[in-house]
Amino acid sequence: MPRAPRRMLNLASCFQPTHIIPELEATTKMGVVEELAALASRLGLVRDKNWFVGALIERENIMPSAVGNGVAFLHTMYRHPEHVVRPFMVLGRSSDGVDFDSLDGRPTHLFFVLGLKFHELHLPWLAKLSQMCARPEAIQTLMAAATADEVFVALSSAERDLAYPSATEMTKKLP
Questions:
Q1: Are 32 and 98 contacting, i.e. CB atoms less than 8 angstroms apart?
Q2: For residues 122 and 81, what is the distance between their CA atoms, to the nearest angstrom?
Q3: What is the pLDDT of residues 111-168, one digit of tens each?
């Protein structure tokens, strides 16, 4: 019997403008992790802020989450449904950038933190976010957004572009 196709959460189901820090105060890697974990805790998305900080740092110590191009995708190594209230994403932005041990050696400006309750969401979300941030214009739009609401709209637009590529992009793919 064929399996039903899996449905992945859409961005709005786990991410809202209140999940965004438009300008992080932190200037260090640890400070960024603590500031974003504190946001997740204030929003009631994790049950234990200290656990979340420790779990994010544990993952960072194995392999840095900064992938280059000014972007980092932070997440815990293992899913802990008892600590994560519901799947979520929080985002912090730093205009100046933070040294986050990025693969390209440059400062990191956008910090996406995934709080994934279920293991099967992990890789699809990382792939989706990577695709959303792969285009330089998407990063420029996120960095230029003046408010959390504008950041949210920019990410929603990037997500829509994945699902419904523009006619220009479709034409580029034709042989």
A1: yes
A2: 13
A3: 999 987 766 666 777 888 888 888 888 899 999 999 999 999 999 888 888 765 544 4
The distance between the two most distant Cα atoms of the chain, rounded to a whole number of Å, is: 53
Q: Give me the numbers of helices (H) and strands (E) for the chain, helices first please.
A: 7, 5
The terminus-to-terminus CA distance of the chain in angstroms comes to 35
Do the Cβ atoms of 16 and 44 come closer than 8 Å? no
Q: Is the dihedral of CA 78, 119, 88, 156 positive or negative?
A: positive
Token duo for residue 41? 């805790």
The dihedral formed by the CA atoms of 77, 80, 83 and 85, expressed in degrees to the nearest 10: 110
Phi, psi at residue 108, to the nearest 5°?
-105, 135
Distance CA 7, CA 34 (A): 31
| pTM reported for the whole predicted model | 0.86
Q: How far apart are CA 50 and CA 27, in angstroms?
A: 20
Domain parsing of the chain, residue ranges: 15-166
| Homologous superfamily assigned to 15-166 | Mannitol-specific EII; Chain A (3.40.930.10)
DSSP state, 158?
Answer: H
